[in-house]
């Protein structure tokens, strides 16, 4: 009952926006709301089911975005012939060094000789990796740097990038989980914070891979282009029949198409998540979360289950990241801010209700809506507060200019208030 | 011979001095994190933004002093403004503790829950700082730029390589030594400091022996606010003040605290220097040094840089991972498991 009512309320927010500003804006917010809901679903699996504290969401989202580019963009044949195979060789060498280290550590007995051998293998591996990689990178980035300068992707349908994003994020999550899970819970938080910073740094600086801060633009779309719709006679005729301007109609149609695709993914994931939560596996997860010692005593492998759910949740964040890049049609590594992604998604989960999938989805929509709308509201409040001052007053000008930063403050306050007075969120776990 | 001297000077100039200054800043930051961990038993994600707030308050007072024409001559005016900045930050964290943390402390909430709460606090501080001073770079350093400038050093010694010590670096190191000495004197010698250590070591025993927990917690926050402000101001003087960089400092600071052993003040200092030296040395381009030391035929073409400076976070991260894998309690056997 409460669920239905709250969802209706959030739906009403979007409808009101549709009527008061425009349906185009409302749908734009709604589409990002769908993506936010998926991210919140992923984080809710980790925190709500298992009590894992992941503050690297932004990194997994960015990896998903990279996957969409690597799958969807057309390849750059010149760049591939200039250095593609060498890049692959370098990556193989790097992976080989890591595998060799692990094998070595398994084979040798602990002691000084093993430590020395480990360091030696790693150092040699690193220099080998750099020796092969550096010239290849230079060659690739020299190929038409203003428009490509990177390897490009596989040229496959961009929709395939979504599962690829999940895989990429899952891989990173596995590596980090192997290291930090099983230790104190805060350590996972700090380790994920670190891996996220590194992933973003790689995306910003490895131009051969992601064009760095030059951004990848013009990703192929899974839905028609506005321009094509506007030049299609049947579409224009239909828009006229409905009495809508064809330009508006085309952008709304495109947004609706995206909304349909995203809603499909969200519903599928939500269904899976609900099934998982209500299965014996879900009960085991909650048992582990509530009392690790007791669960371990019952023969549950706590660390392995944690790793499993950490990988799953991160994979979902990866899907959301790939979807977002698809929606934007571009990858802009400079825009991946931890405050905007990681921490906002956390606010969504906590406010919505941790442990409840529907709650996470609700939080995703609600908080995203607020995040977008707080800025104009803040501006309005500031103008109201300062309306008594005269126009040239420096304090007034400062307040109005700073209204944009009201967002972080508001989100922080919302998070603290919910944690204090309703720590189970809007839709508590049953 | 002079080649070797030149190489040594270059290493001192580009690695030893900057890393010592950076290490002092990290150590001060990590001390704050480790104190909170020791007494309040959670990882404070708001620490970077506490530093930003402290630096910001100091900057505002500095600007006011500068506009009044008050200064310290060759020393930066910010040092004069520091007490005011510390006071503002102490006030902020005490208000935060009263309104936010105390509730969870009384409810005996799980540590990870407190970490999430500190994340909310981080959001608020971050918004506050951006709201008051904006997200952009702010410059507030004044006074003499250099203690020794590269040109003076070259004239003095006749070497090709210059050695510059910026006054901000010298001030950082001197201040850090004074602050750390005071902190250790306080913790080791005073009655209050001893009660704090007792509380950190064994809360129940400390409570039994009549230590007032609220007083210990309050004192911890005061110390943490002072440490955070000093670290923030020194970092701002040395590099520049930008709210987002302070958020990013969270990773090296946590890495330093964990490497040293969470809860161990000595470990925090050691960790700070380990992280700083590795970061600076690994991201430094050794081309110049190699040019002095190697015969001409062997001179490298590239920069001889292990990692580009864009990846400096990777260094703290890798050190962190190594410590987590092989010695999760840190070098100085902190309390974490």
From TrEMBL, chain A:
Record Pfam families: BPD_transp_2
UniProt KW Nucleotidyltransferase keyword: no
Superkingdom to which the source organism belongs: Bacteria
Matches recorded under InterPro entries: ABC_transp_permease, LivM-like
Keyword Protein transport found: no
Location(s) in or outside the cell: Cell membrane
UniProt keywords, alphabetically: Cell membrane, Membrane, Transmembrane, Transmembrane helix
Gene Ontology terms, MF aspect: branched-chain amino acid transmembrane transporter activity
GO CC terms in record: plasma membrane
Membrane topology: Multi-pass membrane protein
Name of this protein: Branched-chain amino acid ABC transporter permease
Organism placement in taxonomy: Bacteria, Pseudomonadati, Pseudomonadota, Alphaproteobacteria, Rhodobacterales
UniProtKB/TrEMBL annotation, chain B:
Membrane topology: Multi-pass membrane protein
Transmembrane segments: none
Subcellular location: Cell membrane
Alphabetized UniProt keyword annotations: Amino-acid transport, Cell inner membrane, Cell membrane, Membrane, Transmembrane, Transmembrane helix, Transport
Chief place where the protein resides: membrane
A GO BP entry: D-alanine transmembrane transport
Native source organism of the sequence: Brevirhabdus pacifica
UniProt protein name: Branched-chain amino acid ABC transporter permease
InterPro entries: ABC_transp_permease, BCAA_transport_permease
Any one GO molecular function term: L-isoleucine transmembrane transporter activity
GO cellular component: plasma membrane
Family designation: Belongs to the binding-protein-dependent transport system permease family. LivHM subfamily.
A matching Pfam family: BPD_transp_2
